[in-house]
Amino acid sequence: MGRIAYVNGAYVRHADAAVHIEDRGYQLADAVYEVWAMSDGRLCDPEGHFARLERSLGELSIDMPMSRAALTTVLKETVRRNRIRDGLVYLQVSRGVAPRDHAFPIEPTPPAVVVTVKRTDPAAAEARAVGGVSVITTPENRWGRCDIKTVGLLPNVLAKQAARSAGAAEAWFVDADGLVTEGASSNAWIVTAEGVLVTRDTSANILRGVTRETLLEVARTENIRIEERAFTLEEALTAREAFFTGAGALLMPVVAIDGQPVGTGRPGPVATRLRSLYIAEARAAAI
Length: 287
Description:
By secondary structure, the chain is an alpha+beta fold. Helix content is 31%, strand content 28%. The strands form two sheets. Strands 7, 8, 9, 10, 11, 12, 13, 14, 15 and 16 form a ten-stranded mixed β-sheet that branches. A six-stranded antiparallel β-sheet has the order 2-1-6-5-3-4. α6 (210-221) crosses α8. The chain is globular, with a radius of gyration of 19 Å.
């Protein structure tokens, strides 16, 4: 069976899916998105993703396109029609279709909704986690509202491409003060020499990662000391361990930054254990 997408009320062949040329998401990046990891056909971290979606839409004064219950039905039906058990579910909501103008449309427009699903390979992801990955750093050059999950991602795209060109899995943004903010598509973490788990606080200009929040809860149940604060690139380079989190990566150990090994140059015990615990928790809470 071919891939199926949901577009503005209809389930259509992925190859035939289309949005209007004056969709404001397409022309002006006037849209938000969410990505759910999917385990055994179920959505992981559902509450966190729905809450962040509603917050992002609210920050841009875009109406929820439908109730949370109705949207859940749409997401699950798209998953069912694609017959995918493990993968990623992508949702995009734009302000809708209107003649191009920077200001909001004068006449109310219904939000435009797109849902797609793609398969992932858990075994391949686990193999990457066992070996660990590298990251590069790049200067922070994004806008001042990274807490809103908008589709305006060009700096992230360029950072991710730079990482790929360097043979790395991710790029970490570093601000003018030498502080790591977050990754191009993930949140950044370190484990200090004292065993403290550190990740940037959400009062900073970073995305409020859903995987990040769930992992913090998991770490607390393990009585791991946690500090939500800024950390420098130098701290990261001298840390015992490092890793990043996100719906796509889940938790991915980092073994090198800008070509320099982190810790032993192998995934550490904290990251390895937390990855296992997070996956178990995400699967148990999936809907």
